[in-house]
Amino acid sequence: MEIKERAGYFLLKTKETKVGLVYSNKPKVTDELDLVINADLKNTYSLTEPGEYEIKDVFVIVMKKEKGSVYIINVDDINLLLVDAEIDLNEADLDAIGEIDILIFNDGVAVSSDTAKFVNRIDPQVLLIGGNLAGKKEELVKTFGEHYVEEPKKYKVSTTDFDNEEYNLHLVQIIDGK
């Protein structure tokens, strides 16, 4: 799977599908997408309502919570979570979410001790940095650790990247993803 950052969304490219993971309320979608998650866009299959969906090689669970939505995405056996940090998840929610490889926050999330606690509860291997978090490298490293990676243009990832039982959280920011 390949991930590129665009204006307000991440573009996920699989063998069969182009998915837009929207983290901003004003995305500027320029790609032809098979699926959009977290936004209603004309002429594209969009997921915003609760339920389980399977589109080509992408499986998505959408959960509505009091303070927003939770999107669990499985692509090529890699589990991604797109969420607002303010969402309060109980143990049943965490069980439903399961093991997460890559965590993505919606825009507007602040780097704080509460955000750090949320990340620790989810325990992803990668926190994908985009939107308003992109300019906060020093704060992110101070809060989450020193494993900050800047990927030129795109981030290529496969299941073998997550085979290591002993890992440190990696903060990944895609630079110039156009």
General description of the model:
The protein has 178 residues and is mainly beta. The chain has a single domain, classed as Ribonuclease Z/Hydroxyacylglutathione hydrolase-like (Metallo-beta-lactamase, Chain A). The chain is 14% helix and 39% strand. It has helices at 91-97, 113-122, 137-144, and strands at 2-6, 9-13, 18-22, 35-37, 45-47, 51-55, 58-65, 68-75, 78-83, 102-105, 126-129, 148-152, 155-156, 170-175. An 8-stranded mixed sheet has the order 6-7-8-9-10-11-14-12. Strands 5-4-3-2-1-13 form a 6-stranded mixed sheet, with no helix packed on it. The protein is globular, with a radius of gyration of 15 Å.
Rg measurement, Å: 15 Å
Overall domain count: 1
Kindly, what is the distance between the CA atoms of the first and last residues, rounded to a whole number of angstroms?
17 Å
Oligomeric state as shown:
single chain
Could you name the CATH class?
Answer: Alpha Beta
Overall CATH architecture: 4-Layer Sandwich
Helix percentage: 10-25%
CATH superfamily, please? Ribonuclease Z/Hydroxyacylglutathione hydrolase-like
Give the integer mean of the pLDDT values. 84
Q: What is the string of helix and strand elements?
A: EEEEEEEEEHEHEHEEE
Our count of helices gives 3
Quantity of strands, as a count: 14
Given the helix and strand composition, which structural class is it? mainly beta
Note the main sheet: 8 strands, mixed
* β-sheet strand percentage: 35-45%
**Major sheet strand order:** 6-7-8-9-10-11-14-12
CATH topology name, in short, is Metallo-beta-lactamase, Chain A
